[in-house]
C-alpha cells in the first residue's frame, strides 16, 4: 500500500513539473515582440512593433533604454505596460547626437525574453517633417512664408538656418505642375495671372546632412485683381567709386519710388528695412554708400507711387556685397605660332576697396579678329589655357576677353579687357623657302665674289692703267739696288750678265728709250757697290753704252 502511494505521488509530480518549470523559467511559452521600428520625425520619437502571437490576449509590452557609459538598463517613460503596438517617448530628454540602446519584452502572467533593438543615433535616424506654410496673394505673384514643422526644435537647433525648400505649384483649374527647387524660407513666385487660384505644396531639405523631408498639406490661394500701377522692372546694381548705384525701369513719368532691403533671405525672422538715401526718389535710380551694407547677402525691391496709388513691389533681386557688386575683366598673355595663338588667362590684380567677385567658377569669352578686318570670331572656354586655331601666318590679330559667372542666379559679366594685338609667325612653307634661299646664296657666293673681282680688274684696267715697265725688263728690276744717298742720279738698269745685252737694234731702241729717260733726274749719287768686279765693270760699260 505504501509503495502504491509513493508511485502515485511520483506520477503527480511528473505531471506537474512542466508547468512549474515553465513558470520558474520566466514564461518561455510567451514569445518576444518582433520587427521593432524607431520612427523619428523632427522631435517626435515613435516606437512600433509587431505582436509575436496574436492569439494571446491581455499581453502588455515594456521598454528599457541605456545611454552611453551606463551599465544598467532604465525603464523608458511612457513605454511601460503598453497594450498597443505603438509608443511615443518624445518627452525623454536625449542628446540627439549620442547613440542609445532600447529593448522590449512581452508581459502577461509571465514575461518573455528581451528583444534588443540595434543601437542608433537620433539625429542620423531623424526625418524632416512637413513645413508650415503661409501664403500672401498679389495680382501677379504669391508670397510664400515657410517655417520648419517644429518650432524651437531640439533636433534641428544647429541647422535651423540651413534649411532649403522645394515646392510644386499648379493652377487649380489645370493641374499642370511646376517644380521650383532650392528656395529660402521666404519666396515670391512671379508672372502669375490675376484673379486665378493656385495650389502648392512644400517640402524641406537639409542638404548638409543629405536629408529630404515630406510634403506639407496642399495650400491654395487666389491672386487679386490687376493693380492700376505696374511694379518697377529690370533692377540692376553697379559700383561707382565708393557707392552702389541702383537703377530700374518704369513705364510712367512723374512717379515717386522707394527701395527696401532684406538681410539674409534664408532667415524668416529678418524684416524689410528702408534704404536711407532711397526714400521718395523722383528718378529711376538711387545712390547709397557701400558702408550701408555689411558683408553678406541681401534682397532688394522697389515700389512706385503717384501719391494716390501704389504699385506692388518689384521682383526681388539678390545682392551679394562680395559677389554681385563687381567682376573684374581677365588679364592674359599671348604666345603666337604660325597658325594659332596660345592664350594664358590669369587672375586680375585688384587694388582699392571695391567689392569684387572672387573664388567663384568663371567662363571666358574670347573675341579675336584680323587687324585689317572687322570680322570677329568668338570662343567660349572654361579653361585658362586656350588655343585659338586656324590663323594665317605672318598676320596681325587682335584679341579681347571678358569673364562671366557660371552661376545663373548671379548672372554677372565683366567688361572687356584691353585689346592685345600680336603677329603670327611664318608658316612651314615660308621657312622652307627661307632655307632654300640661304642655301642658294651660300652656293652662289664664290661665283659672286669671283665676278666682282673680274669686274674690279676691268675697272682698274680702263680707268687706272698700270705704270709698270714692260715684261722684258721686269726681271732685271728685281736686282736693281738703289743707293740711300740724297743725290739725284739718273735712273739706270743693271744687267747682271753681259751676255744678255741686246743686239744692235735693241741697243738702238734702248738709246731711244734712254732719251726719254734723260729728261728725268735722279738723286742717286752714281756710286754702286757690287761684290763681283766683273759684274761692276759690266754695269759701267753698259752705262757708257747708254750714254
Task: Report what the structure shows.
This protein is an alpha+beta fold. It is built from 6 helices and 29 strands. The protein has helices spanning 2-24, 122-125, 428-463, 474-477, 504-518, 533-546, and strands at 34-41, 44-50, 60-66, 74-75, 86-88, 100-107, 115-120, 132-137, 142-147, 164-171, 177-183, 186-189, 197-206, 211-212, 219-222, 233-240, 243-249, 256-263, 273-274, 285-289, 297-305, 317-320, 331-336, 341-346, 362-370, 377-381, 385-388, 396-405, 420-423. The model is unreliable at 1-27, 351-355 and 480-547 (pLDDT under 50).
SSE layout:
Blueprint: H1 2-24, E1 34-41, E2 44-50, E3 60-66, E4 74-75, E5 86-88, E6 100-107, E7 115-120, H2 122-125, E8 132-137, E9 142-147, E10 164-171, E11 177-183, E12 186-189, E13 197-206, E14 211-212, E15 219-222, E16 233-240, E17 243-249, E18 256-263, E19 273-274, E20 285-289, E21 297-305, E22 317-320, E23 331-336, E24 341-346, E25 362-370, E26 377-381, E27 385-388, E28 396-405, E29 420-423, H3 428-463, H4 474-477, H5 504-518, H6 533-546
Amino acid at each position: 500500500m505504501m509503495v502504491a502511494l509513493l508511485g502515485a505521488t511520483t506520477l503527480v509530480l511528473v505531471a506537474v513539473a512542466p508547468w512549474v518549470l515553465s513558470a520558474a523559467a520566466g514564461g518561455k511559452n510567451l514569445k518576444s515582440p518582433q520587427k521593432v521600428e524607431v520612427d523619428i520625425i523632427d522631435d517626435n520619437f515613435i516606437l512600433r512593433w509587431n505582436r509575436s502571437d496574436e492569439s494571446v490576449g491581455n499581453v502588455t509590452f515594456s521598454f528599457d533604454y541605456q545611454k552611453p557609459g551606463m551599465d544598467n538598463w532604465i525603464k523608458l517613460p511612457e513605454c511601460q505596460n503598453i497594450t498597443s503596438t505603438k509608443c511615443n517617448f518624445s518627452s525623454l530628454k536625449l542628446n540627439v547626437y549620442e547613440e542609445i540602446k532600447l529593448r522590449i519584452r512581452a508581459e502577461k502572467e509571465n514575461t518573455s525574453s528581451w528583444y534588443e533593438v540595434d543601437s542608433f543615433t537620433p539625429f542620423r535616424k531623424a526625418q524632416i517633417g512637413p513645413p508650415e506654410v503661409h501664403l500672401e496673394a498679389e495680382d501677379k505673384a504669391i508670397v510664400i512664408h515657410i517655417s520648419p514643422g517644429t518650432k524651437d526644435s531640439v533636433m534641428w537647433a544647429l541647422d535651423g538656418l540651413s534649411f532649403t525648400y522645394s515646392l510644386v505649384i499648379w493652377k487649380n483649374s489645370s493641374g499642370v505642375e511646376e517644380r521650383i527647387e532650392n528656395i529660402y524660407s521666404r519666396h515670391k513666385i512671379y508672372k502669375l495671372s490675376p484673379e486665378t487660384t493656385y495650389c502648392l505644396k512644400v517640402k524641406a531639405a537639409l542638404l548638409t546632412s543629405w536629408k529630404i523631408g515630406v510634403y506639407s498639406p496642399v495650400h491654395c490661394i487666389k491672386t487679386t485683381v490687376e493693380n492700376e500701377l505696374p511694379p518697377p522692372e529690370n533692377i540692376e546694381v553697379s559700383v561707382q567709386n565708393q557707392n552702389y548705384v541702383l537703377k530700374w525701369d518704369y513705364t510712367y513719368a512723374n512717379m515717386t519710388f522707394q527701395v527696401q532691403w532684406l538681410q539674409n533671405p534664408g532667415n524668416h525672422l529678418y524684416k524689410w528695412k528702408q534704404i536711407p538715401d532711397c526714400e521718395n526718389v523722383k528718378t529711376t535710380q538711387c545712390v547709397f554708400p557701400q558702408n550701408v551694407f555689411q558683408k553678406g547677402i541681401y534682397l532688394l525691391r522697389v515700389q512706385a507711387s503717384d501719391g494716390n496709388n501704389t504699385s506692388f513691389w518689384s521682383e526681388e533681386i539678390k545682392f551679394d556685397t562680395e559677389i554681385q557688386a563687381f567682376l573684374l575683366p581677365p588679364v592674359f598673355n599671348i604666345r603666337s605660332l604660325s597658325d594659332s595663338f596660345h592664350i594664358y588667362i590669369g587672375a586680375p590684380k585688384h587694388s582699392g576697396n571695391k567689392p569684387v567677385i572672387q573664388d567663384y567658377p568663371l567662363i571666358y569669352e574670347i573675341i579675336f579678329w584680323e587687324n585689317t578686318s572687322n570680322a570677329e570670331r568668338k570662343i567660349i572656354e572654361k579653361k585658362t589655357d586656350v588655343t585659338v586655331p586656324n590663323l594665317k601666318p605672318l598676320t596681325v590679330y587682335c584679341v579681347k576677353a571678358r569673364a562671366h559667372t557660371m552661376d545663373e542666379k548671379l548672372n554677372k559679366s565683366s567688361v572687356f579687357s584691353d585689346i592685345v594685338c600680336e603677329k603670327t609667325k611664318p608658316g612651314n612653307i615660308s621657312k622652307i623657302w627661307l632655307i632654300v634661299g640661304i642655301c642658294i646664296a651660300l652656293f652662289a657666293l664664290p661665283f659672286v665674289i669671283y665676278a666682282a673681282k673680274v669686274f674690279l680688274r676691268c675697272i682698274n684696267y680702263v680707268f687706272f692703267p698700270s705704270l709698270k715697265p714692260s715684261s722684258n725688263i721686269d726681271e732685271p728690276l728685281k736686282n736693281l739696288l738703289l743707293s740711300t744717298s740724297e743725290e739725284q742720279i739718273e735712273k739706270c738698269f743693271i744687267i747682271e750678265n753681259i751676255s744678255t745685252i741686246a743686239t744692235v737694234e735693241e741697243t738702238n731702241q734702248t738709246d731711244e728709250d734712254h732719251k726719254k729717260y734723260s729728261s728725268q733726274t735722279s738723286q742717286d749719287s752714281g756710286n754702286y757697290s757690287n761684290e763681283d768686279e766683273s759684274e761692276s765693270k759690266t754695269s759701267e760699260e753698259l752705262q757708257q753704252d747708254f750714254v
